[in-house]
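Crash report, auto-generated. Payload:
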Amino acid sequence: MKYALLVHQSQEHFDRRNDPSAVAAGKAYGEALQAAGIFVGGAGLDSPQNATTVSVRDGKRQVHDGPYAETKEFLAGFGIIDVPNLDAALEWAARHPAAEFASIEVRPLLGSHFMVGTPKPPK
Amino acid sequence: MSEAATSVAIESVVRDSYGRLVAYLAARSGDVAGAEDALGDAFVAALKRWSAEGVPEKPEAWLLHVARNRMIDAARHTQVRQKSEEFLQQIAEEAQAVAKAHEHFPDERLKLLFVCAHPAIDSAARTPLMLQTVLGIDAARIASAFLVSPAAMSQRLVRAKNKIRDAAIPFRVPEPPELNERASFVLDAIYAAYTTGWESLMEAASTHHALAGEAILLGRMLAQLMPREPEAHGLLSLMLHCEARRQARYTRNGKFVPLDHQDANLWSQPMIEEAEKHLHSAAAFKHMGRYQLEAAIQSLHANRAKTGRIDWKEIALLYEGLVRIAPGIGSLVGRAVAIAQAGEPAVGFAALEQIPPDRIADYQPYWAACGHLLRLLNRKDEARKAFDRAASLTDDPALREYLFQRSAEDAGQPG
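Recovered output after restart:
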């Protein structure tokens, strides 16, 4: 079962993401996921200020500056893990170094056969 | 066998085995709704077959077998999930083993209780989910006990079951240290079934109380499935102590009787004895908890049947312990009243005044306690106002009448 761990945090904490202690903790966590053999993928995200949002309406492409929604807490990173069940996913989410100040949203990926890199054929 | 006799037989299987069958199927498929549907179909099939051929020797094994076939059909119609083949095979083998041997199939109800009260499930759905999946109570009845529309309750239950399946909430009993907190969610959800629709402090009001019997069933089940969990015994003891007084809470013409004035002869002695037995079992583990403390308080009230008096000092001590581990508004008010009744009304009232104002605005027992303590302090006008406010906050007509009566009690009397 694959789950996304979505890290939502405030600007204040986001600004501290390059502190040496934060970098070290993030690296160690990533290595622990790898060592446990459950890491599927993931990355930290750049600031929402550098986001550009695209949609296509009536065949017309609309592009605008900024994230999909302006919120106080925003998506700052994500990881995808493959674990047996929700309890195991929650366990790993709680170990995320950002969990003590950010919120980690744990969401199952759609479909148990989902494979990163091999998208399902359209239905 | 006639259809009527068959449905009696089915009812008895439902009563004794419904939760075990759902738990067994769901623990293997991870799909509570699918298990319930398949079992529902199996009961329909049983009604037909058993009328013609009689009830089989192992009715549960028969139902499991049919339910499993239904789940295979359902799996064919929907997207086959990887797990389903394996678990269906497993069920087939186990159903055969059960049919042959004289043993019961594995009891997975404890796992189901932990799934229902999982922190990932909306807290408002946990108790209804237990009532439906473990006891087989229909959504309409649960809805009426919870004072919500049947449609809203069904939606809440469907959403919760979908989440169990789609987020893969595991059917497992957690290990320590997680076990402690997770068990408390199970206990709380069962107690919520007992107190549903029942704004109670020291059994103030008990209008709805619609699911008390079901809550006690769940409590007995939990104490049996977790015999080494003292709080499971504590919770059962608490519910039994409260339930023992059902007949004494109102007079024959519907007047409300507060606990201290209830006729102890109307209390159910067998229930009190069972309650005491469980409180005793809990104490042996020497690990105090919220429900044991609350049960111990009720036990002291029950002692009045023997001794003719209430040991308020001891009750105040127990409340002291209770507010330390569970500082809910109910225990804060209870402590204040106990202190006052133990001979220190001024101290008790000071404790009432310390409760944050934002928590008392619509909490009837607080205002009733206020009225009582103010009267003990001879602050008559304030007492009257407090009783009036309490009366305006209850939806139980008998309690309202009682509170207005107390408000008027010594109006005009000297002193």
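Post-recovery validation: Residues 112-123 of chain A have pLDDT under 50 and may be disordered.
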